[in-house]
Amino acid sequence: MPHTTRRTFLRATLAGAAVVAAPLPLRAQPKTFKIGVIHPVTGPLAEPGQACRLGAQMAADAVNAAGGIRSKGGLQLELVLGDTQTKPENGRVEAERVVNQGARMLMGSFDSGSTAAMVSVAQQKRVPFLVDIAAADPITANVAKSVKDGQQKVQYVYRNFPTGSSFGRKAVQYFTEMFKEAGVSPKRVVLMYCNDLFGQSQSRGFQAAHKAANPGWDIVEVIPWPEPPSDLSTEVSKAKAAKPDIIAPITRPASAQLLLPELRKQRLDIMGVVSPGSPGLYEAGQIAALKEDLEHVATCVPWANFKNPKTNAVAEDFRKRSGGKTFDTNSGYSYDGIFIIADALERAAKLDDPDAIVDAMRKTSYGGGLMQYGGPVVFNELGDNPNAITTMIQILGGKPVAVWPKAAAVQKFVFPRPKA
Questions:
Q1: Element (H or E) spanning 210, and its range?
Q2: Which of 78, 108, 275, 376 could form a disulfide linkage to 367, CB 3.0–4.6 angstroms apart?
Q3: 239, 192 contact by CB (below 8 A)
Q4: E strand or H helix at 189
């Protein structure tokens, strides 16, 4: 038997104590489910894109804090973030990157061009994709047609946001109802729009809805501009020559910052600026930059239901986390998007099969959204939510507020706009 020195004894004793004192291994933490969340957080669309990202992150935090995906053992959501830099071609690049980093679903991406680019990745790689914001009808319609025609087996793309055609129908309805409520009869509307995929889709939807409804007012001129524009004086001069009662613009933030001051500069004698629906007319940065030029401007956009106490609580948290910004179209639809995904994951038979997730998406009937809806979130044969509707908001006292329809209104609209 080998001789044991005092030093050897102490070393063995300490080693044994260390083994005894070592902490027990922690219980295995739930794995995460990665979602690729892609928006334009830099470039001309950075303000709405950043609002989308924050809304999505707040929702993921809320889902995780409430226990994660409970039917899957408390599975936590992990967002893999992407930035299109407001370049449509980057939609595909970023979608491929986040999928390569483990994203098993996609959500995004605000502008229709980059969203359309993401669709091909979703379909090719079999990654379920929820469009939180993007209105162009072909985004889902083209995929649905290819599946129906047998060119593709499964539709992986679904959208909660209203389509361009549905924007148009609601805009024509709200225009007509508000004019009647105000007791005025505008006759001449000039439609102006940014000539990108979004603007083209919105313009077509508005004109088609107008033709179908045949209201008591006419679209007397349709004026596109290249997006982004460097100057809109020529387009505004053409609009002025049409002697409009209403200017109906479909804008981006950068173009709105040129259009509205130009309308003032050329002194158009109009009843108001009422948009069929577009960004650039309600964000905090736009209000700060455009000031009085944006006062009384109205736009038909998806909007949060501020009559819901939960919406107000989330909106207050968003205000604190965003430096005082409004919980709006962008943040709200991205927030709801994450909860719609979480709802599908709860119901999916399994999560390692994208077709099982798609099957759960198809069967969605989610009633917990914070936005204004015409019913629960459901998806039709095109992959769109027919209950996604718009609200007419107006900038009053430097703040965007819901003014129509009456069921959604938190303040009475002002129309015609007061004379300067």
A1: helix 197-213
A2: 376
A3: yes
A4: strand 188-194
Q: Supply the DSSP symbol for 376.
A: S
The tens digit of pLDDT for each residue in 35-88 reads 999 999 999 999 999 999 999 999 999 999 999 999 999 999 999 999 999 999
Domain coordinates of the chain in residue numbers? 32-162+306-389, 165-301+392-404
DSSP-assigned beta bridge partners for residue 188: 218
Structure tokens at 156: 């992986």
Residue 9 has pLDDT above 50, yes or no: no
CATH of 32-162+306-389, one of 3.40.50.20, 3.40.50.1000, 3.30.360.10, 3.40.50.2300: 3.40.50.2300
Percent of the chain with pLDDT over 90: 90
Q: Which CATH class is domain 165-301+392-404?
A: alpha beta
Confidence (pLDDT) at 30 = 52
Model confidence pLDDT, tens digit, residues 226-256: 999 999 999 999 999 999 999 999 999 999 9
Coil, strand or helix at 341: helix
What residues pair up with 250 in beta bridges, in sequence order?
Answer: 193
pLDDT, tens digit, for every residue of 167-203? 999 999 999 999 999 999 999 999 999 999 889 989 9
138-156 exposure pattern, b = at least 16 Cβ within 10 A, e = fewer: ebbebbbeebeeeeeeebb
Place of tokens 């994709």: 129
Look at residues 365, 384, 385 and name the one whose alpha carbon lies nearest to residue 376: 365
Question: Which two three-digit tokens encode residue 34?
Answer: 């990665």
Q: Among 119, 19, 62, 47, which Cα is nearest to 317's? A: 62
* Two structure tokens written together for 141: 């319609």
C-beta atoms surrounding 17 within 10 Å: 10
List Cβ neighbours of 402 (8 Å cut-off, separation of 6 or more): 303, 306, 372, 391, 392, 393, 408, 409, 410, 411
Tokens in use for 111? Answer: 């502008």
Nearest to 380 by CA among 201, 128, 157: 157
273 pLDDT above the threshold of 80: yes
Amino acid making up residue 148: K
Does 165-301+392-404 match 32-162+306-389 at the fold level?
Answer: yes
- Position 300: which residue type? C
| pTM exceeds 0.70, yes or no | yes
Cα separation, 46 vs 184, in Å, equals 38
DSSP 3-state percent helix, strand, coil across the chain (nearest 5): 45, 20, 35
The amino acid at residue 81 is L
What pLDDT does 233 receive? 98
What pLDDT is stored for residue 28 in this prediction? Answer: 52
